[in-house]
């Protein structure tokens, strides 16, 4: 198995089909494949050897998707850069895995210069913008035009395909090494779940450096569908793109969906002209969707179904899926909707105790995962790898339980669990109770230091527009649903929660003011 | 990836779902998995080591499916025996791969004794029938009852999963070594093609030793569907089983479908009471289906769609699929219906010349295949392996061409090609012309010795009931469709064509009388 095989397949079977739409331009599979094979040749001419790293530091674009195919085509290794990172973080990662070439577009040219100055391994910078090529950099289009297409290098199987940095918000970033088999098996699981097909046109609106987006890109390639690209997330642009390019599939964090719907409400004139009937699949992750948000989404996208994915970069990235059939009123009634679904086809999940033994169904433990999607390991971090992968099982650090039907219910990161007065409190459970409060729009629960109990349960709340409430009201509301020791003992009201690039609440940011040494 | 993971998945997620129906009895996934783990333990207790071969010589049964899961669960290697084989052939294969244990049912007890006497590696024979256990054999049910379930041995990836003998009708049988990855990737391709789902109940009516049937079994396991088993093919029993167990999927050779429909015509009384509306998918292979047969089939199974597969044991076994969407009137008009479809998702196909270079689209060459489904090699036959797999590509020995859309059109086995007066004649092309003749029901075209031309085109024809025709009529009919040198110069009329266990015409049988040394 090798990553670019999906592209070869469409070049062979559907050369005239539209592979990609971006900025009003369309590219067929034959044209796209030709550009990929030329860019690959250009990288080789620049001295990139098999297995060497090539980084991309860019907003979303057609060229980003070319990069994702050209680097493995050349036999090199992908290293996409987190666009939220500051120069020192980029420099750390580029040095960590000795990246040889960096491709950048306009917003990142200045940081790229700093990176070049601080990274001895970096031999070349390629400018992938549409303006004038900055001094000292090579022009992406010129490289493509000046190179003859090369044969695919055909690295495959357990060969390293990419290094994807994770954990930038919680300590030192770790480079997750994913093989060709990791990435292809992940695509296969998407197709086996029936969520993608030849008729798919997927809008890529999540930041492309993120593995969730890259995995979707690979899935669309394997299904011989069509890519549509939005440069970055902006609610109005997203809604317009869905209507204008007849998007069928989209991957979003629930917060992004909410922002899209809010934009519709604030722009009724423009919204009224959008035909949103083409959308038939919304994949979401990072956090659950409330029934209210689902109902609002359905009202706006009449043909959309929902699929929730759970996973992490180390799992390439999906471990479980909650399919469309579990987003119904019945699933709400049975509670399955609160799960992250069941293990995907070739992936195994079990819940284990601290000794690695499986716990009974319904008991909370650590989620462990085995399968062809489990990473090769962390780059240059054999101890971290040995700690994460034991007996072939990736220990996710996530807490959860499995019900009798194999549905996984996520609690917290094990290390995010609050230990208050000797009792384990899972913030997810508290948040689930809190979010039903009539005044609460969003919330996050963390542990804060407490002299007597060690930690105390603390809630950070974003109120609905115009709403007010009190700690007492919040506590009594929670008390009806969960045990007293789990209810918040203090509360903060805020305008917004700090979010990561993919819409996850950054709990470390919330914790910082309370702890001298952030956990 | 490992073969039994599909079973573990259903045991975890759907323990109470019916896994298997046979002889009026139903087994849940929990029960089935328990029996598999016990049988695996019994094999280990008998001294079967990891990687050792366990053979099965039986008609279809629930126990056959248990065997297929228990042997890999025990860490051993499958070696299913062709039920058409004579004692010397079975002895050859058991000695060839040093099989340790043989499981037999009633029809094969006598041959099994001869095999035991002639095969020093064979330590035990297990009787899997329902009668009294023959002397010197162990009882299958007693072994299952007396063993405690063992943990899965978890052989996986490139580990050998089974040895499947092929070519028994054309010279010395070769043991095709398939790995766990080979078999799982084949199942994944079935699911990605959308031909199987959780609602599948598949009737296994092809002989189970055959990889086509085994691959279907694996596909049903991965989709968490239900198996239904018919002991052997018999047209009336098959039609009754489809109605009585609400079969949704079936895999058949076109000749078997025809026999089923003929049975309906000859038994109108019984046929009238059968509800055949549950059947929604007919997978066929080995030979194409005529439009007439398709129309008759649709009239009988109103909800059935068709999928054609092409492959071979060495490809675990599927390389291409012609999906339901290419069994329409439009596909007849475009000619796509005459193809064997396009490469499956993770499998690559190219048409090559004698030097291994890809030929232009539309040109005939040898079909070559690469992907995770390509066998590890032939057991103990490194030369044959090196000849078949070159640069990672399995050279199938089948002739064919690919059109501009990636559809593969099968001609002949390269070695079955007729060379007449220096011209290459593909019997498939002649047969396609012949079968339209109003008097012809079935036909096969072979090369026979000719003093002047080397070989001459010879047709063997089965006439429609009551029909007659002449060589001249046949020739002039063909001449309207194909070049003169391709038209038959001689013809034989027969009652029936000799068929293999999966419905392939045995051309070697037809050739024998004409050649001193059969090709």
Task: Give the largest interface.
Answer: A-B, 29 and 29 residues
Number of strands of chain A: 27
Helix content of chain A: 25-40%
- Determine the CATH topology of the domain at 5-178 in chain A: Rossmann fold
Oligomerization: homodimer
Task: Enumerate how many helices of chain A there are, as a single number.
Answer: 17
Task: Tell me the name of the CATH class of the domain at 5-178 in chain A.
Answer: Alpha Beta
**SS-based class of chain A:** alpha/beta
Proportion of strand residues of chain A: 25-35%
Uncertain runs of chain A: none
Shape of chain A: globular
Could you state the CATH homologous superfamily of the domain at 5-178 in chain A? ANL, N-terminal domain
Distance between the termini of chain A: 40 Å
| Average pLDDT, all residues of chain A | 93
Could you give a short account of the major beta sheet of chain A?
A: 9 strands, mixed
CATH architecture heading of the domain at 5-178 in chain A: 3-Layer(aba) Sandwich
Strand order of the largest sheet of chain A: 2-1-11-10-12-13-14-15-16
Radius of gyration of chain A: 23 Å
């Amino acid at each position: 198995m090798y990553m670019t095989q999906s592209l070869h397949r469409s070049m062979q079977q559907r050369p005239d089909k539209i592979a990609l739409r971006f900025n009003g331009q369309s590219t067929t599979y034959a044209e796209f494949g030709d550009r990929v094979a030329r860019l690959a040749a250009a990288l080789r001419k620049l001295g990139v050897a098999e297995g060497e790293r090539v980084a991309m530091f860019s907003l979303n674009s057609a060229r980003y998707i070319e990069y994702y195919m050209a680097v493995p085509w050349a036999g090199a290794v992908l290293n996409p850069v987190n666009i939220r990172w500051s120069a020192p973080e980029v420099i750390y990662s580029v040095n960590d895995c000795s990246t040889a070439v960096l491709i950048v577009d306009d917003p990142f040219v200045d940081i790229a210069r700093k990176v070049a100055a601080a990274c001895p391994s970096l031999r070349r910078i390629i400018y992938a913008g549409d303006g004038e090529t900055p001094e000292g950099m090579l022009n992406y289009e010129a490289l493509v035009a000046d190179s003859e297409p090369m044969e695919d290098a055909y690295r495959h199987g357990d060969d390293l395909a990419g290094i994807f940095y994770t954990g930038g918000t919680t300590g030192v970033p770790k480079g997750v090494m994913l093989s060709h088999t990791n990435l292809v098996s992940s695509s296969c699981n998407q197709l086996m779940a029936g969520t993608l097909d030849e008729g798919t046109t997927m809008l890529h609106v999540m930041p492309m450096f993120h593995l969730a987006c890259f995995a979707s890109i690979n899935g669309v390639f394997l299904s011989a569908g069509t890519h549509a690209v939005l440069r970055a997330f902006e609610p109005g642009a997203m809604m317009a793109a869905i209507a204008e390019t007849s998007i069928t599939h989209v991957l979003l964090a629930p917060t992004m969906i909410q922002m899209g719907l809010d934009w519709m409400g604030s722009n009724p004139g423009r919204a009224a002209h959008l035909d949103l009937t083409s959308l038939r699949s919304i994949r979401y992750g990072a956090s659950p969707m409330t029934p209210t948000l689902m109902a609002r989404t359905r009202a706006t996208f009449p043909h959309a179904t929902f699929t929730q994915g759970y996973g992490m970069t180390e799992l390439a990235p999906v471990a479980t899926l909650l399919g469309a059939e579990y987003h119904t009123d019945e699933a709400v009634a049975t509670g399955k909707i609160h799960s992250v679904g069941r293990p995907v086809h070739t992936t195994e999940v079990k819940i284990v105790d601290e000794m690695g033994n499986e716990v009974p169904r319904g008991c909370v433990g650590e989620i462990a995962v085995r399968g062809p999607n489990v990473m090769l390991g962390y780059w240059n971090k054999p101890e971290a790898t040995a700690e994460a992968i034991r007996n072939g099982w990736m220990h996710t650090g996530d807490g959860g339980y499995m019900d009798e039907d194999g549905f996984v219910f996520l609690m917290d990161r094990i290390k995010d669990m609050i230990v208050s007065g000797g009792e384990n409190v899972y913030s997810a459970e508290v948040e689930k109770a809190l979010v039903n409060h009539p005044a609460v729009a969003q919330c996050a629960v963390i542990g804060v230091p407490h002299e007597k109990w060690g930690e105390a349960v603390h809630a950070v709340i974003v109120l609905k527009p115009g709403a007010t409430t009190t700690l007492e009201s919040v506590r009594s509301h929670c008390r009806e649903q969960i045990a007293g020791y789990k209810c918040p003992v203090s509360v903060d009201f805020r305008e917004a929660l700090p979010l990561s690039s993919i819409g996850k609440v950054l709990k470390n940011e919330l914790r910082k003011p309370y702890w001298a040494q952030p956990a």
